[in-house]
Amino acid sequence: xxxxxxxxxxxxxxxxxxxxxxxxxxxxxxxxxxxxxxxxxxxxxxxxxxxxxxxxxxxxxxxxxxxxxxxxxxxxxxxxxxxxxxxxxxxxxxxxxxxxxxxxxxxxxxxxxxxxxxxxxxxxxxxxxxxxxxxxxxxxxxxxxxxxxxxxxxxxxxxxxxxxxxxxxxxxxxxxxxxxxxxxxxxxxxxxxxxxxxxxxxxxxxxxxxxxxxxxxxxxxxxxxxxxxxxxxxxxxxxxxxxxxxxxxxxxxxxxxxxxxxxxxxxxxxxxxxxxxxxxxxxxxxxxxxxxxxxxxxxxxxxxxxxxxxxxxxxxxxxxxxxxxxxxxxxxxxxxxxxxxxxxxxxxxxxxxxxxxxxxxxxxxxxxxxxxxxxxxxxxxxxxxxxxxxxxxxxxxxxxxxxxxxxxxxxxxxxxxxxxxxxxxxxxxxxxxxxxxxxxxxxxxxxxxxxxxxxxxxxxxxxxxxxxxxxxxxxxxxxxxxxxxxxxx
Length: 489
What we know:
This protein is mainly α. Helices cover 82% and strands 0% of the residues. It has helices at 2-33, 36-57, 64-67, 75-108, 113-120, 124-131, 134-140, 144-168, 172-197, 207-241, 244-253, 258-280, 284-321, 329-336, 346-352, 356-381, 384-410, 414-417, 420-443, 448-469, 475-485. Helix 5 (113-120) runs parallel beside helix 9, helix 6 (124-131) runs parallel beside helix 9 (172-197) and helix 12 packs antiparallel against helix 13 (284-321). The protein is globular and about 65 Å long.
């Protein structure tokens, strides 16, 4: 069971990571094809869609996780009901665009060119939203391999349809039309896979079935809205207060490393059941011990990655996006500073102990603090202030709140709750090669590619030697940790 659960979570997290990688690759190409103004306008259009979707979709894309498993009588009817609701949600967004939403958003973002791009997206939600049910459908029916293949193929198709036409006709409208074409193709394939996965002659939807899915999805949707708003708020604030050119540079730096989602996803899948079992047994000491092990295990990978990327950020941004995007290293570095927090999956503990509502409270507190700090700090530091505000809100609002909650639940103190000594050791180990590379940068001037090679040569042996010298992990244990996150068959 554990392997099956872990495999499913890895499919989901790797799908998200693949989406991020494809987005990174397409951004790397489009930044060289389009002007900063055009690229910024294109990213604003995608941001507007991403921000609006949760308000229309609520939790409908996840309803089949609950309703489909074990259903024998009318699985296809359940699917049809879900697709009808998702199509209706897409129709709402399309109608919003038709009724002037394109002009409204263009005015809010102070970018007249944005209206044209959003108007071209009128069919995008209508086709794209029904496809969001695929993960819940196939995962509920244990068709993880099909989902994995679809994730790879659909991301590749979308990448080609966006990037290739832009090479011949370098306009933001070309990229948007490529997105729309990709949505149509991938949705047709997704609907076909879902109908094949849900057999049965009974397909007619019922009002009662539609109502049940709506009742389930609406409360879930509120937390989704808050979560999405928290993730995209910094970019929305930059779009509202800065030019498209500044937003273009900011948005390619304000990203999360795809690796992090895979690591945290795999950890959550493994520890969630154990947390719940220990809590039912009243064994809070075992939960604390598992927290220490999980944090240390993830920190062995996350902290070296953080320091490595921190020292090569300017070179990496220039190589990926061109010299005009070197400033992207600033928000990129700022967001790297909150990676140590990601070594603990707070949500898994709160879910396992029956305190999921605390996650919603934390999200609301963090979102409010993020908005206030981000809006003010943009006025002080420019676009970088949005990243600073986001990190400050996480470190000084969300984390303290969650720490207080966990202290009460687990009946322990802060010094016992976290493996502070292990985290400190790993920070020292990771900081040594960081210091070496930064010092060499002060005295040597060489090409960006050579710096990446030198940093890699310095970091890998330094980290392995540091882990062995401090007994944090032997070379074989280090490899085993990597393989546990990225299993090779």
